[in-house]
Amino acid sequence: MRARLRLLRLDMLRLTRSTGVAIAVVLLLAIGVYAAWRGGRNIEAAASSTVAAETAYRDQLAYLLSTYPPTTEAGEVLYYLAFPAPQPSLPLAALARGRTEVETASLRIRLLALEGQLYEHETVNPRLAAAGDLDLAFLLIALLPLFIIALTYDLVSSEREGGTWSLVRLFARPRRLLALKLASRACLVGAVVAVPVAVAASLAGFPLDGRAGWAVALIALHTVFWFALCLGVASGRRSSTANAMILVGTWVALTLLAPAALSLANAILHPVPEALELTVHQRQGYHEAWDLTKAETMQGFFEDYPEWSDRTVPEDVFTWAWYYAMNHRGDRAAREASGAYRDVLRERERWARRWSLLVPPLAAQLALDRLAASDLSAQLAYQDAVRRHHERLKTYFYPHFFAVTPIDAVDWDRVPVFEPAVTEESATRAGFPAATALLLASVLVVAAGARLSGPRAD
Amino acid sequence: MSSWRAGLRNALLVARRQVGAVREDRYVVFLLGLVIALGVVAVLGARHHAASEAEQRARYQAMVERQWLEQPNRHPHRVIHYGFLVFREEAPLAFFDPGVGAWAGTSLFLEGHRQNTANFGDARHATGMLRFGRLTPASVLALLLPLFVVVAGFASVSAERERGTLRLLLAQGATPAQILAGKVLGTGAVAALAALPIGIAAVVIAASGAVGPVSAGRLAGLAGLYAAYLAGWVLVTVLASSFRASSRSALAQLIAVWVVLCVAVPRLGASVAGALHPVPSRAEFTAQVERAMNEVGDSHNPQDPFFRSLRDEYLARYEVGSVEELPVNWGGVVSREGEAISSRIQEEQQRDLVEGQRRQDRVLSWAGLLSPYLAARDLSMAVSGTGPEAVEAFRAQAEAHRYDLIQRLNDLHINEIRYENDRAQRLPREHWAEFPTFGTRPPPLGGALAGRALSLAALGLWILLPLLGLGLARARLARVGVERAAS
């Protein structure tokens, strides 16, 4: 046992003395700690954006209430007032940022037609977004495998090419020596993974719950998969350069090509014309109402809100009840296209999840995004939460429109507060399929490596 | 003259030898087939995607234009709120390099009083898979081909040295410069073989006119750009191969260089740019606009002090006692002045935001000096007409169109609508045909390139530095030969 530990230490020393390995370790650690810090910063920025939206709401309300006479109708002031709908991010989003860069997580919505407000773009700089985002998940899932490849591709072939293999075989069983070399490399990789994850956890304050547990498990399993793959290839009799080419080729295929090809196929298989359609319909539905009788507009509104169907609006004067009912007409006109739009996006997400299970890095990435609630389905859940909020606001204010309440008679303190989307999916449901896929893939590559990669090293 | 000719012959012989070595390597041949197949799939897929997107946008644009003309008799202020929808057209070469298009909005609603955001960018409809990058002809050329060049050339010089044939070549009278030139030519020929199918497919599609008119200048620009970028990779590969002791370490080093230049630095650069120059989020931005507007006033609010003083000014100018007596429609005047103010404020805020993003871009441009991949992508989207300046041009042109549209409607309100019983009046629908239609004018190629001196310089350095390195390698190669021969 002691002898084995000494050998392990020796091998570690030999590894870290190589300039290339030392540079790679320092770079990976530096980028990792930076990515963890940046993840924490992103969460802080999202939180401060939330505070800004809430402050802006209070300021705007105070401004409107102080500039308009107290007898002004509530409907007029509400035309200007934007209600904040901030979705707090999960701490785990510091690790897996997913699509949060392009998604809006803090809409400010007015009581007007919702479909025209729901899809507002973030102030993302397209050039930065096109260059790609660097979060810890990308580092650990896309870049770390290359480090593993660099450490292991010549595990056996270097000894053979250096002429030391026969010597080694004299003193140790090759299998045991292989395990020893693997162990020292796993220690090194483990450190490169553990340090930034720990930094991210302490900066973003992960609770040590099921989500964090599954995230760590997925990262570990993904690392194991690459070790398994490298072992499978490196234990054959090929030359070091052949091993390197095969492994890097596999990395390119799994990390760059498969996701890009699947993404392209997904976009072609599931087009979203509804995005433009719903915009056109919403605008048309609202504006047509100006040329209809008020009764016609109200009829559609009462179909959706039968609880108010005993109210009437006068035909010859402007009323806010009618004005907001016209806005509702716009949403009604867009309803079908909007539903189809969400269905297509859900279908894209389902399709991506299914196919990602065949591509280990993708399986890990998408599952991490799911755990961190930074994926497309989280955005759709957020949009649904905003829809519910819009409904609650309507329910709160509509009685005031019918009753023609002045602004000083509205209880502004009891206006419904936004209830963020809650992630209903359990951590296990989000993590289990990918974890299973990664485990199966690892077993498969070791088995295939044993069978296909040519004669064994011993 | 004859020595020059002999030198060329020697270099070509070495080049042929290099191509032959590559042909014998089944891994490289397999990868060559893969890269060509991928390139062609990327061209066809991107072409299909771009065509269906363009068709959709054109269809809805036509629908919106028809709806505009089919409006009934309406009050002009009604039409100000009805507004207009414009859809961003992609540049014809977007199928080759979509640039930043996926991250920019597609549809923009133009209405009075507000500047909306362009919505429904492609990236918002994509799953987390897109994070790994898109499969486009440009990404195959810029990201994958360098790796193929590395695989095809890492052993070019080192294998000759390992096998002892380098000494033989030198002994047969080939100078180190001729050997290196031959290796560069041979590896370059293999790279060209991989790149040409993509280029040919792209030119065929562009020439067919299916994607819209493509200028020959832009195609030539792209060809030159990628040729220079890949030539840099060929030079770096041969350089590493001649400097490293073994093929194995040359390969390891080159792959590390590729990862750092093509994967790590671009993302790190983008992340650092965002951290150095943060821009406000959408919620913060709209709140800022709101605050700025509240400070000046709002045309929908008759109590506003600014508009009270404007009224006094109008009453004095026309020497009347009340707005009812004005020869022009006071409501329309308020609307026009209000639009002028709110547009100015929003444009100022927008300019600050764009300026913040340009600061981020500059950080990324400097990162291009470290990563030729970034520089090449930057130039590629500029030449393809799909860079950030094209998105900004669309936004600015759409805003100019919006402002013109709204103020024409306000002028109709001022001159054609009487003040009393204002809102009950309608303008005949014939007026709607008088408005100009919207069309994007893409920024010219020269302008797009003028702002990219840094990227052009980076690409120049990417060729120059490895050439200098090869100059040093030549001396070393000669020494190696002499040492080996002497021993």
Description:
The complex is a heterodimer of chains A (458) and B (487). Chain A is mainly α. Chain A contains 16 helices and two strands. Chain A has one domain. In chain A, 70% of the residues lie in helices and 2% in strands. In chain A, α5 runs antiparallel to α10. The longest helix of chain A has 49 residues. Chain A is elongated. The mean pLDDT of chain A is 89. Chain B is mostly helical and 487 residues long. Chain B is elongated and about 105 Å long. The C terminus of chain B is likely disordered. Chain B starts with a helix and ends with a helix. Chain B has a two-stranded antiparallel sheet with strand order 1-2. At the A-B interface, α2, β2, α4, α5 and α10 of A face α2, α3, α4, α9 and α10 of B.
Structural descriptors:
heterodimer; A: 458 residues; mainly alpha; two-stranded antiparallel ribbon; 16 helices; 2 strands; elongated; B: 487 residues; two-stranded antiparallel sheet; 70% helix; 2% strand; disordered C terminus
What is the topology?
The complex is a heterodimer of chains A (458) and B (487).
Chain A: H1 2-17, H2 19-67, H3 74-78, E1 83-86, E2 106-109, H4 126-131, H5 136-152, H6 157-162, H7 165-171, H8 174-204, H9 210-234, H10 240-269, H11 274-288, H12 294-304, H13 320-356, H14 360-371, H15 376-403, H16 427-452
Antiparallel strand pairs in A: 1-2
Helix pairs in contact in A: 1-8, 2-5, 2-8, 5-8, 5-9, 5-10, 5-14, 9-10, 9-14, 9-16, 10-13, 11-13, 12-13, 13-14, 13-15, 14-16
Chain B: H1 2-24, H2 26-69, H3 76-82, E1 84-87, E2 107-110, H4 137-153, H5 158-163, H6 165-171, H7 176-207, H8 216-243, H9 247-276, H10 282-296, H11 305-318, H12 330-367, H13 372-384, H14 388-416, H15 445-450, H16 453-486
Antiparallel strand pairs in B: 1-2
Helix pairs in contact in B: 1-7, 2-4, 2-7, 3-14, 4-7, 4-8, 4-9, 4-13, 6-16, 7-8, 8-9, 8-13, 8-16, 9-12, 10-12, 12-14, 13-16
